[in-house]
């Protein structure tokens, strides 16, 4: 059914290619093999669809060891692993890159007496494949690239076979359904295969069920059988409708080897099975899941129940419940099953897809269709999207012919509905994610048995693709690419038989999809690369091509034309180059133009000519004409060539030797060959002047080429390290197998296996290769080692092992990582003249993925050091050595990365913060470990008496490398702690001179520490040697700055500092005294008297400095001294203690305090404060001065004074004497009297006594005067003469004549 015009490889142009190269890994072409072009003509094609190999692949057979599966009744079966890579790498006469097809396959060949294949399938959760051959069930893992070590052969009980298996040909032998349940799902296996699983086998026709509790356990692999009652044999149709349509299994949480299964019958019955090693219990949960639903369109000749699927997550956090979904003929039903305490099944909601209401479901999208069938449903791994295969019966209005259209419907939860806990039965929780995607517009009409045998699978690459498994044994991948739907049909160039099932290769990273894998009838398990799907896909044809022939023979030619991409652009090569390293994004199908292909081909040819002849004449010009210097980064032709050199696969490596492979010298030999070839490549670039051109214009590409050399050197050193570890463990046994096992037991071996497995799963071309082979081949992706170390540390180290074992394994990995980085840095130093300018470029060892891996390992070592106190000196020393090496390379990576970001102008503050935090943590851990090692070494000396010098010598020796690292990375806390614990001021001063950095460097840190611990005397003594540095630091600590300035004889600056400190509005400088020789204890805050003393010191310093303005400074200091004295007096007269007597109040605030007090004792103090301030202060606070005069005028009873003087007949002299006692007189005397002391100009400049004074005519506001203020007083109309007389008397002082004359004039 799903058979788009399959594109066949064009190997006819090179028929003798395989024969000319007998050592080639490609399968040789037999003389009797028909041309591949003959298969483009469908009539000559075998009816089974995938023609079988005409000759055995002897190269594979020769290197494969037989695996005997001995039984009492059958000859042993031979399990082989076969990888066939079929690739055309060149254009032109060798073919078109659009014809590129490559697949990696596992083939299981069975040689037995009865090899009739009955059924087969794949289980995604356990990665197990299974087939039933004769009366035996074969189960194995399809993840291994080697011959499976665990292939289980299970005998089907005779009670379930008998004569019932005969005649099961309706669905091509697919009457058996198998489900596997994994018991070790909670363990973190990362990439290991399943090692504990139960198998449940169900016959769809008979209802017989067989349960193997654990096929990995010898004691639990005995089958448990349940036979249902024989079905009614009234007719074949009725028998078919009583068959089980779908079967799903789930483990029961908290139980051992117990699980439940749900099965739906085609007629709507829902059954619950409970399995345990003691037996199988079955009960019908619902007789008809569509009971009471009038919208069902099921008839006796149709199936109303289609498929069951689990929700990928449990319903509750305690795993006590789980949801599952049932697809019927017209709707999706959601059910919930509760495991604890009692098993209970309940229907939650349903969503109608095909209904009578044309506005709901998909009928409105399929107007005019005669009938709609929902064939199968799958749910994605997130439990969010439902994919449903829909078939519709249609009629062509022109030709009146009937046809079937196949479409894919994608449904998703409405926003917020996926987390709801309660629903109504009629609530619609789903919505269409996208319109119906038509897969086959017009296909032949098939019978319903054929339609309902069609299945789909989801979750493979490309993202969003779906594989459709039809009843005739074909597998078609449908994807959406470049704005249209594309179909790719899995097909082998020989007879591989029918496709039995399909699944997805599990990715190590849960966020990534895996490649599609299919199980074939005769060729085993094959992986479908993403590139094959995208580039080999075709537009959906008008008519599907069956195995019997095409309705349109020209469709093949038309399809070939549709494969051509627009312009000169050809697809890039994904495969091993497409999967990323760690946090690098995976780049699939990087576009390459035809010009790129030509340039790459020319470069390869010219380089190989150079290897043979050494000729380089005209190379630069030829490559320039082809545009070889145009691309940047990884897409550059020269960088691609370098990558192909270091990532070359060895054709002579085998896949069946396991750990013995890397124990041989083959790996080291190949790596050395690559190294020599890469060196030749660099010479080629230099001699042809290409290196000079790249270094000046393509710096990033040049760096990538050199980094390939770094990584190759690192890989060689890592291989040498592994050989050394192997030699150290060789004493265990001299046998090769034990030797390999000893090597495989280490953490480095586990990490290599993990990285290799990740590469295999992401690159299906490598699926037949050994993990270690893949690791040592993928040199350019060495960052993956650090990625796996970061994300799968617990698996590699062995989290359940004792701490001492974890320490040893962590040290082994640490040694490997530092060896890698140091080898790369050594290569960089040796070839430094080959590198371009690195400004703004970040090398591979500085990438986030590398830093994360190193930090993950370092943090583990630090954690282990905290958890356990090792008493073994050798263990402690090894931990010290490895943590020191990790710290060194990790901090260097951070500094290089930060430098590159700064040079590029990128945001780097977050990275700097992370660097500082991790640097301090690493150095602190190293310092603590150094002290522990010092104690252990000192105890080993067995001295009878305490020898402090010996202890100090040991400590100095141990911390020498730590000192170097801390100096290089500004680990000031560690440097300070070292000097402090050693009491070595000489070392401290030396480090302060050497470690200069931002914000003063180490000297600034030392000053800060001394300040924090109040060791001010030591701080000031350091100022003798670090004068400028301390002066800069003390700008933030002025309470000590004046002392340093006095030492520097900067008296004027010291005076200003003292003046500012004395009048500071905070608590002021703490007064300290050295009561102890080392520490300075904090004493009380300074009082006002203390502040006056500081002002006096400031005055002395100003006089000592004698600068140009020292007289002005001294007068200002004198004025501030007077204000402080006034504050003391004012505070002494306050009625409460609300004011802080030690804090100097600002003049304005001090005046307001006096006004609030309103007493004669303090009413004159504001005028004194005004007098000692500046002219600018008086001018800006004129309103406050006005309030002071009003307050002074209100202190005396002027009416009473007037009445007494009149009644008693006072003379002018008596009146004047009385006025001298008034507050108004005293205030005027302070401000305007002949003996007044005013700082910074007189009061007349701000407020004159009388408004008509010619002397003060410059005042703009003539009404603002003391006389004007007094005129506003309530007593002024009656006693104004006395008030004015008082202020005038104060102005003239002792001379009464003017005042008396003024009084006489007023009396007249």
UniProtKB/TrEMBL annotation:
<feature type="transmembrane region" description="Helical">
    <location>
        <begin position="100"/>
        <end position="120"/>
    </location>
</feature>
<dbReference type="GO" id="GO:0017056">
    <property type="term" value="F:structural constituent of nuclear pore"/>
</dbReference>
<dbReference type="InterPro" id="IPR015943">
    <property type="entry name" value="WD40/YVTN_repeat-like_dom_sf"/>
</dbReference>
<feature type="compositionally biased region" description="Polar residues">
    <location>
        <begin position="14"/>
        <end position="29"/>
    </location>
</feature>
<feature type="region of interest" description="Disordered">
    <location>
        <begin position="1"/>
        <end position="32"/>
    </location>
</feature>
<keyword id="KW-0539">Nucleus</keyword>
<comment type="similarity">
    <text>Belongs to the nucleoporin Nup133 family.</text>
</comment>
<keyword id="KW-1133">Transmembrane helix</keyword>
<feature type="domain" description="Nucleoporin Nup133/Nup155-like N-terminal">
    <location>
        <begin position="116"/>
        <end position="526"/>
    </location>
</feature>
<dbReference type="GO" id="GO:0016973">
    <property type="term" value="P:poly(A)+ mRNA export from nucleus"/>
</dbReference>
<feature type="region of interest" description="Disordered">
    <location>
        <begin position="542"/>
        <end position="582"/>
    </location>
</feature>
<dbReference type="GO" id="GO:0000972">
    <property type="term" value="P:transcription-dependent tethering of RNA polymerase II gene DNA at nuclear periphery"/>
</dbReference>
<dbReference type="InterPro" id="IPR014908">
    <property type="entry name" value="Nucleoporin_Nup133/Nup155_N"/>
</dbReference>
<protein>
    <submittedName>
        <fullName>Non-repetitive/WGA-negative nucleoporin C-terminal</fullName>
    </submittedName>
</protein>
<feature type="transmembrane region" description="Helical">
    <location>
        <begin position="127"/>
        <end position="143"/>
    </location>
</feature>
<dbReference type="InterPro" id="IPR037624">
    <property type="entry name" value="Nup133-like"/>
</dbReference>
<dbReference type="GO" id="GO:0031080">
    <property type="term" value="C:nuclear pore outer ring"/>
</dbReference>
<dbReference type="Pfam" id="PF08801">
    <property type="entry name" value="Nucleoporin_N"/>
</dbReference>
<keyword id="KW-0813">Transport</keyword>
<keyword id="KW-0472">Membrane</keyword>
<feature type="transmembrane region" description="Helical">
    <location>
        <begin position="67"/>
        <end position="88"/>
    </location>
</feature>
<keyword id="KW-0812">Transmembrane</keyword>
<dbReference type="GO" id="GO:0006606">
    <property type="term" value="P:protein import into nucleus"/>
</dbReference>
């Amino acid at each position: 059914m799903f058979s788009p015009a399959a594109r066949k490889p064009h190997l006819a142009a090179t028929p003798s290619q395989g024969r000319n190269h007998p050592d080639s890994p490609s399968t040789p072409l037999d003389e009797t093999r028909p041309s591949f072009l003959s298969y483009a003509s469908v009539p000559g094609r075998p009816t089974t669809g995938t023609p079988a190999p005409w000759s055995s692949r002897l190269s594979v057979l020769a290197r494969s060891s037989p695996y005997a599966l001995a039984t009492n009744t059958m000859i042993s079966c031979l399990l082989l692993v076969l990888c066939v890579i079929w690739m055309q790498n060149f254009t032109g006469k060798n073919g078109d890159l659009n014809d590129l097809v490559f697949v990696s396959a596992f083939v299981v060949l069975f040689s037995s007496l009865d090899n009739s294949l009955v059924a087969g399938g794949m289980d995604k959760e356990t990665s197990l494949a299974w087939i039933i051959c004769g009366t035996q069930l074969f189960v194995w893992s399809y993840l291994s690239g080697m011959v499976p070590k665990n292939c289980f052969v299970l005998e089907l009980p005779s009670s379930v076979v008998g004569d019932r298996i005969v005649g099961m040909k309706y669905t091509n032998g697919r009457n058996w359904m198998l489900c596997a349940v994994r018991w070790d799902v909670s363990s973190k296996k990362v990439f290991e295969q399943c090692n504990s699983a139960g198998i449940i086998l169900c016959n769809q026709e008979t209802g017989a069920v067989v349960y193997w509790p654990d096929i990995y356990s010898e004691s639990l692999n005995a089958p448990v059988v349940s036979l249902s009652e024989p079905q009614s044999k009234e007719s074949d149709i009725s028998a078919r409708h009583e068959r089980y349509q779908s079967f799903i299994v789930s483990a029961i949480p908290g139980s051992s080897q117990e699980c439940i299964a749900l099965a739906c019958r085609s007629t709507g019955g829902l059954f619950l099975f409970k399995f345990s090693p003691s037996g199988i219990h079955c009960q019908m949960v619902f007789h008809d899941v569509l009971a009471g639903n009038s919208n069902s369109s099921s008839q006796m000749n149709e199936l109303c129940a289609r498929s069951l699927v689990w929700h990928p997550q449990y319903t509750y956090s305690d795993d006590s419940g789980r949801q599952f979904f049932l697809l019927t003929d017209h709707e999706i039903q959601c059910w919930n099953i509760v495991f604890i305490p009692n098993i209970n099944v309940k229907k939650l909601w349903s969503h109608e897809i095909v209904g009578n209401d044309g506005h709901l479901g998909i009928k409105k999208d399929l107007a005019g269709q005669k009938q709609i069938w929902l064939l199968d449903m799958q749910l994605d791994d997130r439990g969010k999207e439902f994919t449903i295969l829909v078939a519709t019966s249609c009629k062509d209005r022109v030709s009146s012919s009937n046809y079937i259209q196949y479409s894919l419907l994608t449904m998703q939860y409405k926003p917020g509905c996926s987390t709801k806990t309660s629903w109504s039965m009629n609530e619609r929780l789903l919505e269409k994610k996208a319109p119906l995607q038509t897969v086959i517009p017009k296909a032949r009409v098939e019978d319903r048995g054929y339609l309902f045998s069609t299945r789909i699978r989801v979750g493979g690459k490309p993202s969003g693709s779906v594989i459709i498994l039809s009843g005739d044994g074909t597998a078609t991948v449908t994807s959406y690419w470049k704005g249209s739907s594309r179909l790719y049909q899995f097909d082998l160039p020989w007879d591989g038989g029918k496709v039995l099932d399909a699944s997805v290769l599990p990715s190590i990273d849960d966020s990534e999809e895996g490649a599609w894998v299919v199980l074939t009838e005769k060729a085993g398990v094959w992986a479908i690369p993403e590139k094959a799907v995208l580039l080999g896909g075709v537009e959906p044809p008008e008519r599907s091509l069956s195995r019997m022939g095409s309705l349109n023979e020209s469709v093949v030619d038309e399809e070939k034309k549709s494969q051509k991409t627009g312009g000169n652009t050809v697809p890039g090569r994904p495969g091993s180059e497409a999967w990323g390293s760690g946090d690098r994004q995976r780049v699939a199908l990087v576009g390459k133009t035809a010009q790129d292909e030509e340039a790459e081909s020319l470069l390869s040819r010219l380089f190989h000519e150079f290897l043979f002849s050494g000729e380089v004449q005209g190379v630069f010009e030829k490559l320039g004409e082809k545009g070889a210097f145009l691309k940047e980064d990884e897409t550059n032709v020269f960088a691609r060539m370098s990558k192909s050199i270091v990532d070359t696969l060895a054709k002579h490596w085998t896949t069946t030797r396991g750990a013995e492979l890397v124990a041989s010298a083959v790996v080291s030999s190949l790596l050395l060959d690559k190294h020599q070839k890469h060196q030749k490549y660099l010479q080629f670039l230099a001699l042809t002047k290409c290196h000079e051109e790249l270094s000046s214009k393509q710096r990033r590409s040049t760096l990538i080429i050199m980094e390939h050399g770094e990584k190759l050197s690192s890989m060689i050193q890592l291989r040498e390290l592994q050989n050394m570890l192997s030699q150290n463990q060789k004493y265990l046994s001299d046998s090769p197998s034990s030797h390999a096992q000893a090597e495989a037991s280490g953490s480095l071996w586990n990490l290599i296996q993990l990285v290799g497995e990740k590469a295999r799963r992401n690159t299906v071309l490598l699926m037949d290769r050994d993990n270690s082979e893949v690791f040592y081949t993928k040199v350019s992706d060495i960052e993956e080692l650090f990625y796996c170390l970061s994300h799968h540390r617990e698996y590699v180290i062995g989290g359940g092992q004792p701490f001492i074992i974890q320490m040893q394994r962590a040290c082994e990995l640490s040694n490997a990582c530092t060896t890698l980085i140091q080898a790369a840095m050594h290569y960089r130093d040796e070839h430094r003249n080959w590198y371009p300018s690195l400004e703004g470029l970040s090398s591979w060892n500085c990438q986030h993925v590398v830093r994360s891996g190193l930090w993950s390992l370092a943090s583990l070592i630090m954690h282990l050091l905290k958890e356990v106190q090792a008493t073994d000196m050798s263990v402690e020393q090894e931990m010290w050595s490895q943590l020191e090496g990790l710290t060194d390379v990790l901090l260097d990576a951070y500094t290089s990365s930060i430098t590159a970001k700064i040079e590029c102008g990128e945001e780097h503050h977050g990275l700097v913060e992370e660097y500082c935090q991790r640097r301090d943590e690493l150095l602190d851990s190293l310092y603590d470990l150094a002290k522990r090692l010092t104690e252990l070494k000192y105890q080993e000396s067995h001295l009878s008496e305490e020898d402090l010098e010996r202890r100090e010598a040991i400590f100095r020796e141990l911390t020498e490398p730590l000192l170097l690292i801390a100096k290089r990375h500004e680990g000031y806390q560690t440097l300070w702690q070292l000097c402090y614990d050693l009491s070595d001021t000489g070392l401290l001063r030396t480090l302060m001179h050497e470690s200069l950095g931002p914000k003063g460097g180490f000297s600034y840190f030392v000053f800060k520490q001394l300040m924090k611990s109040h060791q001010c005397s030591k701080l000031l003594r350091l100022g003798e040697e670090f004068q400028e540095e301390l002066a800069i630091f003390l700008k933030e600590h002025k309470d000590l700055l004046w002392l340093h300035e006095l030492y520097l004889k900067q008296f004027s600056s010291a005076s200003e500092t003292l003046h500012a400190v004395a009048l500071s509005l905070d608590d002021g400088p703490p007064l300290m005294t050295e009561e102890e020789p080392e520490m300075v204890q904090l004493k009380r805050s300074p009082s006002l008297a203390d502040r006056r003393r500081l002002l006096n010191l400031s005055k002395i310093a100003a006089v000592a400095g004698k600068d140009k303005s020292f007289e002005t400074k001294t007068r200002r200091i004198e004025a501030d001294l007077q204000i402080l004295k006034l504050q003391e007096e004012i505070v002494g007269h306050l009625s409460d203690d609300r004011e802080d007597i030690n804090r100097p109040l600002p003049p304005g605030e001090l005046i307001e305090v006096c006004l609030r007090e309103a007493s004669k004792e303090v009413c004159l103090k504001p005028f004194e404060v005004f007098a000692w301030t500046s002219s600018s202060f008086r001018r800006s606070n004129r309103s406050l001065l006005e309030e002071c005069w009003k307050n002074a005028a209100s202190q005396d009873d002027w009416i009473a004074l007037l009445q007494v003087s009149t009644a008693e007949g006072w003379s002018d002299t008596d009146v004047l004497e009385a006025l001298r006692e008034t507050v108004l007189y005293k205030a005027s005397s302070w401000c305007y009297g002949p003996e007044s002391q005013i700082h910074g100009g007189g009061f007349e400049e701000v407020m004159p006594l009388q408004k008509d004074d010619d002397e003060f005519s410059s005042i703009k506001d003539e009404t603002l005067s003391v006389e004007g203020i007094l005129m506003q007083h309530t007593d002024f109309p009656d006693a104004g003469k006395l008030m004015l007389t008082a202020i005038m008397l104060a102005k003239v002082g002792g001379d009464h004549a003017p005042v008396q004359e003024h009084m006489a004039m007023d009396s007249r």
